[in-house]
Amino acid sequence: EAGVAQSPRYKIIEKRQSVAFWCNPISGHATLYWYQQILGQGPKLLIQFQNNGVVDDSQLPKDRFSAERLKGVDSTLKIQPAKLEDSAVYLCATGSRRGTDTQYFGPGTRLTVL
Amino acid sequence: GENVEQHPSTLSVQEGDSAVIKCTYSDSASNYFPWYKQELGKRPQLIIDIRSNVGEKKDQRIAVTLNKTAKHFSLHITETQPEDSAVYFCAASAPDTGRRALTFGSGTRLQVQP
């Protein structure tokens, strides 16, 4: 089966610019997560969707970050405006197949803010 | 919220030796504990997981032990090989209470010297 797809793989922007990331989950996976992984740290949850509804966005900096999951399939994460400290890898993960708690990660988007 | 501490941050072993990585968690509701391996520039890959109704789980050279009373769990890799070199992350979640998002440790960089 196809894995979690993300694009772009790399993005370099100037601070105060906008950027958007896209995630296509494994078919049938109802739960979708966006994690932020700063260099040298473990991934940190930004937002969790169940189908097209938000389950947890308590750690999402809502003044600059937004995310949506239209039709409960693909998801986009946007940063506007970007700050230097947003430089990180943004990982999308999906899961919640019936009977398992496993999360499958996409390859990530490496964002560099200059 | 949940807090996961991971030790050591770096671990260097000789090929063929064993490696042990330890994690502690704070939320007694957590009952799912996966371990991920992340090679440089790659996505996190699940290598083994354990639920709190089980004290130990083994898969070939990899084993995980869980002490629910002490709130700690460990990854054991035996007969290490150079290809085991990577960063390993422990994580915790509480899917039975609805908290499916993972809280990650800070990672352990394992170096296996040939």
List keywords for this structure.
heterodimer; A: 114 residues; mainly beta; seven-stranded mixed sheet; four-stranded antiparallel sheet; B: 114 residues; six-stranded mixed sheet; five-stranded antiparallel sheet
In words, what does this structure look like?
- Chain A is an all-beta fold.
- In chain A, the strands form 2 sheets. In chain A, strands 2, 4, 5, 6, 9, 10 and 11 form a 7-stranded mixed sheet that branches. In chain A, strands 1-3-8-7 form a 4-stranded antiparallel sheet, with no helix packed on it.
- Chain A is globular.
- The relative contact order of chain A is 0.33.
- With 114 residues, chain B is mainly beta.
- Chain B has no helices and 11 strands.
- In chain B, strands 2, 4, 5, 9, 10 and 11 form a 6-stranded mixed sheet that branches. Chain B has a 5-stranded antiparallel sheet with strand order 1-3-8-7-6, with no helix packed on it.
- In chain B, 37% of the residues are buried.
- The model of chain B has no long low-confidence stretch (mean pLDDT 95).
- The chains are: A mainly beta (114), B mainly beta (114).
- At the A-B interface, strand 5 and strand 10 of A face strand 4, strand 5, strand 9 and strand 10 of B.
